[in-house]
Amino acid sequence: MAAPVDLVFAPPRRGRPPRHLADLTPAERRDALVELGEPAYRARQLSTHYFSRFVDSAEEMTDLPLASRERIAAGLLPDLLTPVRTLTCDGGATVKTVWRLFDGALVESVLMRYPGRVTMCVSSQAGCGMACPFCATGQAGLTRNLSAAEIVGQVVAGARLLADGAVAGGPGRVSNVVFMGMGEPMANYKTVISAVRRLTDPAPDGLGMSQRGVTVSTVGLVPRIRQLTEEGLAVTLALSLHAPDDELRDELVPVNTRWKVGEVLDAAWEYADRTKRRVSIEYALIKDVNDQAFRADLLGRLLSGHLVHVNLIPLNPTPGSKWTASRPEDEREFVRRLEAHGVPVTVRDTRGQEIDGACGQLAAKES
């Protein structure tokens, strides 16, 4: 039985985090410094420290007057993310961190180093209200939305690790950010877009990342997909489809009871047509549930001829769950049938299974 779709827009249950530099546009930062009794130009100094040098403590910002540091730190650099637990695997190339937020909520981020790139998977909500039954975060329910600074802070923390050479492979930089951690990004739309702009604003106003290196995922909130189409951004849209037919998707992705497969895909194609960006279709392969050959053919027919790529995800099962990964032979046949329809497809590299790599697993243990 599908969960009530009212969960999609369930309101946060907690208060807002304190204002942070990364919540503000460059103009808002200047105004905030003036409010604190500081000259407006300090906004650029602070931005350079935070976004280019990854310094988040005013005490380390030695070009600021000593008498001003405490006031600036209290007004614009509050502690938002406290590491609770950090685990590594893949020879130190994958780093998963559980963060405690200012109000005690827990979220996760994952840094993954590959040859030629470093990807960070970030959370946009504490918990999730989408209620997908095979997802650890969905089982936890929604606690609250994250602020832009809480999202950006996850990336800055990863960038700091890389700059310090604390990740296997030596010093480096974050090249890609995927909004595929805890939460439904489109249910925290305005804040996620603000975070994307902080990530991609040229340094020192932001991290200076390429918009093409950012991926925003959704289970299919059609109005928000259409809103993203109008933003003028070149980010990748990732649609977590998981089933090509409404009957099964109603069960696996309860929001499908509001927006059906055809409507969700139409919105995705509108995004691709406007941006000329290939849509990524995320599809978690679940043994004997959605991995049948006939569903591969149905998916292939739906996607054929569109600007699209399928990312098949071997399910990382959660403890006690009835859902598990597909058999290798069924996975291979699924790939073969999609390719027969001319649909590009890859199977995701399964990073971090030994450190509870699926979103929400590690945070659930800490809770």
TrEMBL record:
<keyword id="KW-0408">Iron</keyword>
<dbReference type="InterPro" id="IPR004383">
    <property type="entry name" value="rRNA_lsu_MTrfase_RlmN/Cfr"/>
</dbReference>
<comment type="similarity">
    <text>Belongs to the radical SAM superfamily. RlmN family.</text>
</comment>
<dbReference type="GO" id="GO:0030488">
    <property type="term" value="P:tRNA methylation"/>
</dbReference>
<feature type="binding site">
    <location>
        <position position="132"/>
    </location>
    <ligand>
        <name>[4Fe-4S] cluster</name>
    </ligand>
</feature>
<keyword id="KW-0808">Transferase</keyword>
<keyword id="KW-0489">Methyltransferase</keyword>
<feature type="binding site">
    <location>
        <begin position="183"/>
        <end position="184"/>
    </location>
    <ligand>
        <name>S-adenosyl-L-methionine</name>
    </ligand>
</feature>
<dbReference type="GO" id="GO:0000049">
    <property type="term" value="F:tRNA binding"/>
</dbReference>
<dbReference type="InterPro" id="IPR048641">
    <property type="entry name" value="RlmN_N"/>
</dbReference>
<feature type="active site" description="Proton acceptor">
    <location>
        <position position="108"/>
    </location>
</feature>
<dbReference type="GO" id="GO:0019843">
    <property type="term" value="F:rRNA binding"/>
</dbReference>
<keyword id="KW-0004">4Fe-4S</keyword>
<feature type="binding site">
    <location>
        <position position="217"/>
    </location>
    <ligand>
        <name>S-adenosyl-L-methionine</name>
    </ligand>
</feature>
<dbReference type="InterPro" id="IPR027492">
    <property type="entry name" value="RNA_MTrfase_RlmN"/>
</dbReference>
<keyword id="KW-0698">rRNA processing</keyword>
<dbReference type="InterPro" id="IPR058240">
    <property type="entry name" value="rSAM_sf"/>
</dbReference>
<keyword id="KW-0819">tRNA processing</keyword>
<feature type="domain" description="Radical SAM core">
    <location>
        <begin position="114"/>
        <end position="354"/>
    </location>
</feature>
<dbReference type="InterPro" id="IPR040072">
    <property type="entry name" value="Methyltransferase_A"/>
</dbReference>
<feature type="binding site">
    <location>
        <position position="128"/>
    </location>
    <ligand>
        <name>[4Fe-4S] cluster</name>
    </ligand>
</feature>
<dbReference type="InterPro" id="IPR013785">
    <property type="entry name" value="Aldolase_TIM"/>
</dbReference>
<feature type="active site" description="S-methylcysteine intermediate">
    <location>
        <position position="359"/>
    </location>
</feature>
<keyword id="KW-0479">Metal-binding</keyword>
<dbReference type="GO" id="GO:0005737">
    <property type="term" value="C:cytoplasm"/>
</dbReference>
<feature type="binding site">
    <location>
        <position position="316"/>
    </location>
    <ligand>
        <name>S-adenosyl-L-methionine</name>
    </ligand>
</feature>
<dbReference type="InterPro" id="IPR007197">
    <property type="entry name" value="rSAM"/>
</dbReference>
<comment type="function">
    <text>Specifically methylates position 2 of adenine 2503 in 23S rRNA and position 2 of adenine 37 in tRNAs.</text>
</comment>
<feature type="binding site">
    <location>
        <position position="135"/>
    </location>
    <ligand>
        <name>[4Fe-4S] cluster</name>
    </ligand>
</feature>
<dbReference type="GO" id="GO:0070040">
    <property type="term" value="F:rRNA (adenine(2503)-C2-)-methyltransferase activity"/>
</dbReference>
<dbReference type="GO" id="GO:0070475">
    <property type="term" value="P:rRNA base methylation"/>
</dbReference>
<dbReference type="InterPro" id="IPR006638">
    <property type="entry name" value="Elp3/MiaA/NifB-like_rSAM"/>
</dbReference>
<dbReference type="GO" id="GO:0051539">
    <property type="term" value="F:4 iron, 4 sulfur cluster binding"/>
</dbReference>
<keyword id="KW-0963">Cytoplasm</keyword>
<dbReference type="Pfam" id="PF21016">
    <property type="entry name" value="RlmN_N"/>
</dbReference>
<keyword id="KW-0949">S-adenosyl-L-methionine</keyword>
<dbReference type="GO" id="GO:0046872">
    <property type="term" value="F:metal ion binding"/>
</dbReference>
<dbReference type="Pfam" id="PF04055">
    <property type="entry name" value="Radical_SAM"/>
</dbReference>
<feature type="binding site">
    <location>
        <begin position="240"/>
        <end position="242"/>
    </location>
    <ligand>
        <name>S-adenosyl-L-methionine</name>
    </ligand>
</feature>
<protein>
    <recommendedName>
        <fullName>Probable dual-specificity RNA methyltransferase RlmN</fullName>
        <ecNumber>2.1.1.192</ecNumber>
    </recommendedName>
</protein>
<keyword id="KW-0411">Iron-sulfur</keyword>
<keyword id="KW-1015">Disulfide bond</keyword>
